[in-house]
Design a protein that fits this description.
Length: 84
Protein backbone atom coordinates (compact mmCIF):
# COMPACT_ATOMS: atom_id res chain seq x y z
CA UNK A 1 0.00 0.00 0.00
CA UNK A 2 1.36 3.42 -0.89
CA UNK A 3 0.20 6.69 0.61
CA UNK A 4 -0.94 9.44 -1.76
CA UNK A 5 -1.43 13.00 -0.51
CA UNK A 6 -4.70 14.75 -1.31
CA UNK A 7 -5.46 18.47 -1.66
CA UNK A 8 -2.68 20.67 -0.31
CA UNK A 9 -1.22 18.10 2.10
CA UNK A 10 2.27 16.60 2.11
CA UNK A 11 2.86 13.03 3.33
CA UNK A 12 6.31 12.53 4.85
CA UNK A 13 8.24 9.70 6.48
CA UNK A 14 9.59 10.79 9.84
CA UNK A 15 13.31 10.82 10.56
CA UNK A 16 13.57 9.62 14.16
CA UNK A 17 17.15 10.49 15.02
CA UNK A 18 19.77 12.93 13.93
CA UNK A 19 23.42 11.95 14.25
CA UNK A 20 25.76 14.81 15.02
CA UNK A 21 29.28 13.43 15.09
CA UNK A 22 29.13 10.58 17.60
CA UNK A 23 26.11 11.99 19.45
CA UNK A 24 22.55 10.86 18.67
CA UNK A 25 19.89 13.52 19.21
CA UNK A 26 16.36 12.05 19.54
CA UNK A 27 13.64 13.93 17.65
CA UNK A 28 11.85 14.74 20.94
CA UNK A 29 14.79 16.98 21.80
CA UNK A 30 14.54 18.92 18.57
CA UNK A 31 12.32 21.99 18.13
CA UNK A 32 11.68 21.02 14.53
CA UNK A 33 10.97 17.68 12.95
CA UNK A 34 12.85 16.16 10.06
CA UNK A 35 11.24 14.08 7.35
CA UNK A 36 11.54 12.68 3.83
CA UNK A 37 8.77 13.63 1.40
CA UNK A 38 6.72 10.63 0.24
CA UNK A 39 3.85 12.30 -1.63
CA UNK A 40 2.73 15.86 -2.43
CA UNK A 41 -0.92 16.77 -2.98
CA UNK A 42 -1.90 18.42 -6.29
CA UNK A 43 -2.85 21.71 -4.60
CA UNK A 44 0.35 22.11 -2.55
CA UNK A 45 1.96 25.52 -3.16
CA UNK A 46 5.50 24.29 -2.38
CA UNK A 47 7.85 22.88 -5.02
CA UNK A 48 8.50 19.58 -3.23
CA UNK A 49 9.23 16.20 -4.76
CA UNK A 50 9.28 12.68 -3.27
CA UNK A 51 12.66 11.85 -1.75
CA UNK A 52 13.50 15.42 -0.68
CA UNK A 53 14.21 16.12 2.99
CA UNK A 54 12.37 18.86 4.84
CA UNK A 55 12.10 20.41 8.29
CA UNK A 56 8.72 21.18 9.82
CA UNK A 57 7.33 22.76 12.98
CA UNK A 58 7.55 20.48 16.02
CA UNK A 59 4.72 17.98 16.39
CA UNK A 60 2.38 19.39 13.76
CA UNK A 61 0.33 17.15 11.51
CA UNK A 62 -1.52 13.87 11.69
CA UNK A 63 0.63 10.84 12.44
CA UNK A 64 -0.01 7.75 10.28
CA UNK A 65 1.48 4.28 10.76
CA UNK A 66 1.62 1.94 7.76
CA UNK A 67 3.59 -1.27 7.30
CA UNK A 68 5.65 -0.62 10.44
CA UNK A 69 6.77 2.87 9.36
CA UNK A 70 5.69 6.22 10.77
CA UNK A 71 4.43 8.91 8.45
CA UNK A 72 2.88 12.32 8.97
CA UNK A 73 0.43 14.35 6.94
CA UNK A 74 1.46 18.03 6.95
CA UNK A 75 -0.07 21.30 5.77
CA UNK A 76 2.18 23.64 3.73
CA UNK A 77 2.20 26.32 6.46
CA UNK A 78 4.07 23.93 8.80
CA UNK A 79 7.06 23.47 6.45
CA UNK A 80 10.10 25.42 7.70
CA UNK A 81 12.76 24.51 5.15
CA UNK A 82 13.87 22.12 2.44
CA UNK A 83 17.33 20.56 2.82
CA UNK A 84 19.63 20.85 -0.20
Amino acid sequence: MSLKACGDTIVVELIHEEKIGLIHVPDQAQKQGGATVISVGPDCPHDLKPGERIRFQGNEGLEIESQGKKYRSLKPKWIIAKEE
